[in-house]
Design brief:
This protein is mostly helical. The chain folds into 2 domains: about 10-70, no CATH class; about 75-145. It contains 6 helices and 2 strands. The chain has a two-stranded antiparallel ribbon. A hairpin with a 4-residue loop joins strand 1 and strand 2. The protein is globular, with a radius of gyration of 18 Å. The N and C termini lie far apart (about 55 Å).
Amino acid sequence: MPTVIKATYENFVNVNTRKSLKLIFEVPEHDRQAALDMLGMPDVANSKWVAIAVLEPETHNVADPDTLRPAEKTPGERARIKAVMLCKDDDFQKWINRNHFETPRTEVGARMWICSVCGIESRSEIATNPEALKAFEAIETDFKYRDTVK
């Protein structure tokens, strides 16, 4: 059984009640069973600690298409993923609520607000609509520099 399995970091979820962060990784189909054999099923009563390490590009097998997948994402696709992640971020939700009182401080409220500001029905449109991408990038910049402007 392998002791290391390659995966791509895809998303995260804030777990405010436990003051922690849930990280979501994708394992290639051909390594699925090995990952399950190594980690077993989640067991809250008996947590299993694991390590997380970033693989340097030169350690990837360039012939393996799974290692190229993250780098192949377009700027729009990366922004779409960031939009999904930002909507889950409690600080982002607070920032929206503080500046746009009518927006509920929830993940759904953040999603609705982003879609409204970007003029889209779904965050997936950020990946393919240049105007929506530009609007989202402005939102991201405003949020990033929120504490520097008084």
